[in-house]
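Section 5: illustrative case.
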């Protein structure tokens, strides 16, 4: 009887463990964008609120990079939506490869992405943008010269305390991704050797 009871307890623990793992997997799926595997819009803005509260409470900097794949509509029209989805998926992998473990890359809407950079200054945010731009200009995202050459990406930078007071202003995805307008005017320049447009607020 004791052996049987011990076996029953062991089986119950196994079932509970499997259930816990399954629930964790479901929770992770609920936070992720299915196509790109970066975080989704809901998680981005929930996390942005928390990170902004932390930044204000501890007087630490917080940066946000708004990203737009400006050429996606052209790629969809020229090569089809299946290729467009491949571009989005490849860009999601690019963001995960190029960001730090503490950063939060996410897909905001169709062709718009955002990256939360905790404990990052304005200079640090622009350094990250330059790193993105350099990587996109020199690496083959799709392994296809036609697609890589047609890819145009814009970046907007904002942050706390130097750029915005609220998460809505930091990460609003509407109206052209508001993070690139917080500073009042935009700067734009074409990266030499590539189709990467760097757009930032000052």
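Designed sequence:
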């Amino acid at each position: 009887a004791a052996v049987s009871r011990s076996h029953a307890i062991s089986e119950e623990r196994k079932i509970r463990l499997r259930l816990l793992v399954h629930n964790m997997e479901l929770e992770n799926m609920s936070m992720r964008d299915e196509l790109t595997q970066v975080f989704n819009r809901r998680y981005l803005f929930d996390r942005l609120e928390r990170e902004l509260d932390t930044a204000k409470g501890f007087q630490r900097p917080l940066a946000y990079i708004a990203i737009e794949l400006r050429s996606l509509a052209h790629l969809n029209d020229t090569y089809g939506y299946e290729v467009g989805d491949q571009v989005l998926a490849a860009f999601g992998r690019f963001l995960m490869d190029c960001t730090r473990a503490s950063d939060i890359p996410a897909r905001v809407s169709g062709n718009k992405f955002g990256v939360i950079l905790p404990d990052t200054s304005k200079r640090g945010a622009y350094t990250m943008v330059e790193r993105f731009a350099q990587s996109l200009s020199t690496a083959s995202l799709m392994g296809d010269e036609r697609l890589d050459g047609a890819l145009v990406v814009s970046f907007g930078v904002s942050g706390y305390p130097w750029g915005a007071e609220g998460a809505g202003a930091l990460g609003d995805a509407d109206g052209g991704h508001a993070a690139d307008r917080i500073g009042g005017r935009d700067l734009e320049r074409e990266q030499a050797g590539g189709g990467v447009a760097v757009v930032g607020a000052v």
